[in-house]
Write a structure and sequence with these properties.
Helix Hairpins, endopeptidase fold (from Nostoc punctiforme), 7 helices, 6 strands, disordered N terminus, Papain-like_cys_pep_sf, Bacteriophage peptidoglycan hydrolase
């Protein structure tokens, strides 16, 4: 048996060595780049958490208001109960101490048997009524105490939920900030991509900057070496917004921190203004929550819109487009128009 185990050892060593070599030869899976969709989802998640926090705070405020009212009423209910309790005790003690004299007084002070019966009923009514009032007041006090306790318990649960959501919010804010930072970092390296000769010629021409922007965007869309990608969006592949931002930069126009569809309005700090998308004209940028395109007029656009094959470049010839827009300009949230020099 020992010889058999010893014979197996070289085999195990060979397998282990093979696994080690294989692991060294196989490429590691790279971390996926942050995309616009990632940031949009993170913002939506953060917005949902903030709404939950707002709703819970409203419930907490309501509970605190109810507690304030209940705690103000409790001393009053307690005082009413104690007063009735003392009155009933005094009544019962008086009867006990009189040894039934009060009953005899009721009987013999009456002028007729009917009056005597009436006196006895009145006396009995007072006793029963006092007990009933005391019972009702005790019940009201106990219900108020139970209600107060339930509200306090619920308020504590709400505070715990609020604290848990606050932690989630901090985590979501941190995640979003990291994603935006990564996207900004990728955007800042956009200029590292060397453009083709046609784009370089346009960029170095004496044409107005806006005309350069339009021409560069059209050239990008017409060059099949540039495909659509959200994970590698700063050249040679682009997505809807990075293609526009890249074209703006190559044309010599400032873009600031604009780096995805969600913050294209940053361009308003650099000579652009928001207008109605239905009023868009040639050279305006159409923007909605999930897409951006360069409007060329007469229902024509230049845009990157979809990855069809997952490969670099546009082998299908459909990932970017210059021509009739698949989305009417009026359906966009707004348009950006350049008003600078």
């Amino acid at each position: 048996m020992r010889k058999r185990r010893e014979a197996l050892l070289p085999s195990f060593k060979k397998i282990a060595a093979g696994v080690l070599v294989l692991s060294l030869l196989l490429p590691t899976t790279p971390a996926l780049a942050v995309t616009q969709q990632d940031i949009t989802k993170s913002k939506q998640a953060l917005s949902a958490t903030e709404k939950q926090l707002t709703d819970i705070q409203k419930e907490i405020d309501k509970a605190n208001q109810e507690l304030t009212i209940n705690k103000a009423l409790l001393p009053q209910r307690q005082a009413e109960y104690e007063k009735s309790e003392k009155q009933l005790a005094a009544l019962m003690r008086n009867e006990y101490e009189s040894g039934g004299d009060s009953l005899l007084v009721c009987l013999f002070s009456a002028k007729t048997p009917i009056q005597a019966l009436s006196n006895m009923q009145s006396m009995r009514y007072v006793q029963v009524n006092k007990k009933k009032v005391l019972t009702e007041q005790r019940k009201a006090k106990e219900e108020l105490e139970a209600s107060t306790k339930a509200i306090e318990t619920n308020a504590k649960k709400l505070e715990a939920q609020k604290a848990a959501l606050a932690k989630i919010k901090v985590s979501q804010q941190s995640k979003l900030a990291k994603q935006v930072s990564e996207l900004n970092s990728a955007a800042s390296s956009a200029g590292a991509f060397a453009p083709g000769a046609d784009i370089s010629n346009i960029a170095s021409s004496n044409s107005p900057k806006l005309q350069k922007f339009i021409s560069i965007m059209i050239a990008l869309c017409n060059d099949n070496s540039h495909g659509y990608s959200q994970s590698n969006r700063w050249g040679p592949n682009f997505d809807c917004s990075s293609s526009i931002i890249y074209s703006l930069r190559m044309a010599g126009l400032q873009t600031g921190s604009a780096n995805y569809t969600g913050n294209m309005d940053v361009l308003c700090r650099y000579g652009w203004k928001k207008i109605s998308s239905s009023s868009a004209g040639r050279g305006d940028i159409l923007v909605c929550s999930s897409h951006a395109a360069l409007y060329l007029g007469n229902g024509q656009t230049a845009e990157f819109h979809r990855d069809y094959d997952g490969r670099s470049g546009d082998s299908s010839g459909r990932e970017s487009n210059v021509g009739k827009s698949w989305k009417p300009s009026s359906s966009y949230s707004y348009a950006l128009r350049y008003t600078g020099n």
